[in-house]
Amino acid sequence: MKEITLKHFDGYKYIDGGVCAAKGFKANGLYSGIKAAMDAAMKPDGNESPHGEGKFDLCLVASDVMCTAAAVFTQNKVKGAPVTLSQKHLKATGGRAQGFILNSKNANTCNFDGEQKAQRMCELAAGKLGIKTEEMLIAQTGVIGQIMPIEPVEQHIDELAAGLSYDGNEKAAVAIMTTDTIKKEVAVEFELDGKTCHLGGMGKGSGMIHPNMATTLNVITTDCNISAELLQKALSDVVKVTYNCLSIDGDQSTNDTCAVMANGLAGNAEIQAGTAGYEVFRQALYIVMMNITRMLAKDGEGATKLLECTVTGAKDQDTAITVAKSVVCSALFKAAVFGEDANWGRILCAVGYADAEFDINAVDVKISSAAGSVHVCENGAGIPFSEEEAAKVLAGDEILVTVSIGSGEGEATAYGCDLTYDYVKINGDYRT
Q1: Model's pTM, two decimal places?
Q2: β-strands 13-14, 381-382: how paired?
Q3: CA distance 354 to 174
């Protein structure tokens, strides 16, 4: 099963709705034929491949009113056209947006006409929503280096906009999937300033995922009242300990985007920095982003297990993050998890080459799952443990590695998955 176990947080209630959970947000998704148009362009004889036929590939998320907006994007030097255009739009509006158009099948990256096509998509969507083009955000995912066919978008924009609904979140979440096997949505309800507030999101990603952010495409919506500046601060802080701690295969995408839109329709007083209200909002954002991060990790290409590494006792959070990432990025350990082999030496090896300062003789390691826990290393050295118990623990589909590296207060968790034969199969013919 690819579904994750949602973690409980007092004061927050999980609800349905994804990007439509917050008041005033609508969404829709549909099949426009982007892949078929790409195949037709590559095969002028008309014998295009049926690959992707009928799968949703275009979606739109929109608010009834203008929103404050914030985003983080890929740190890859090669950036897709939708990334550069969304950055320009947020700068032009001072952090405002009312709509978000997204597509799968084509990343619109490394193309001579990429920004022109992305701009056209924003113009089309903005026209249907009755807003300015720069008040639209855009994200695209799929094959890199193939021309983005604009005709499918032009032909289906009327249907896409007309179908916007307050329960269209699932269609939108499915439309951004590429090699994902499940849609990824999380939403929570909470109290703020005496008002009931909502925050929800959707994400996509299965391969080409590695820190740093954004790692994948993510849309988050909320009906809270918060300034663009404070929204950006909350997003940047939370992404550091969620999406930036996620790795599937060590390849950082060119199109990574995570954007948050807040329309204020919950009616709370505007959230102020340094207040209890800000902490409540930030925690809601963390809950949604952390759980989507775990969904992305568990649905890694070919994966059979979610892998989490929590590091404690570090001198600071940055040190803990570095060590935790090192463990979940280890190809050897990921392969051992797939084989359900308690090869703890691979964990210690990955801890040891992490670019961080700590006493290796203070390292303690445990491996856990719903089936139990096995203590495998203490004071930097192996200790006797039951291989039979370890096999039971590793047979689970959510594996937690806990690594203590000292007595400091720094703590962090990184997220990944096992490395399987199917990862190679999926990526061996991804383009064709």
Answers
A1: 0.93
A2: unpaired
A3: 37
Q: How far apart, in whole angstroms, are the C-alpha atoms of residue 113 and residue 149?
A: 11
Catalytic residue among 109, 141, 215, 222: 215
Backbone angles phi, psi at 402, to 5 degrees: -110, 125
Per the DSSP assignment, residues forming a β-bridge with 200 are: 187, 221
Digit-coded pLDDT (tens) for 281-314:
999 999 999 999 999 989 888 889 999 999 999 9
Q: List all residues 6 or more positions away from 4 whose beta carbon is below 8 Å from its beta carbon.
A: 291, 294, 295, 298, 306, 398
Q: What is the spatial distance between Cα 365 and Cα 401, in angstroms, rounded to a whole number?
A: 7
Cα–Cα distance for residue pair 21/187, rounded to 1 Å? 6
CB distance 3 to 182 below 8 Å: yes
Q: What is the dihedral of CA 27, 33, 34, 37, to 10 degrees?
A: -160
Give the closest residue to 195 by CA, choosing from 223, 167, 230, 220: 223
95, 128 contact by CB (below 8 A) = no
Known active-site residue 254: no
Distance between CA atoms of residues 19 and 101, nearest Å: 13
Whether residue 212 is preceded by a cis peptide bond, meaning omega within 30 degrees of 0, is yes
Token pair 């959707």 in the structure block, residue: 202
- Full set of structural domains in the chain with CATH: 13-298 (3.60.70.12), 306-428 (3.10.20.340)
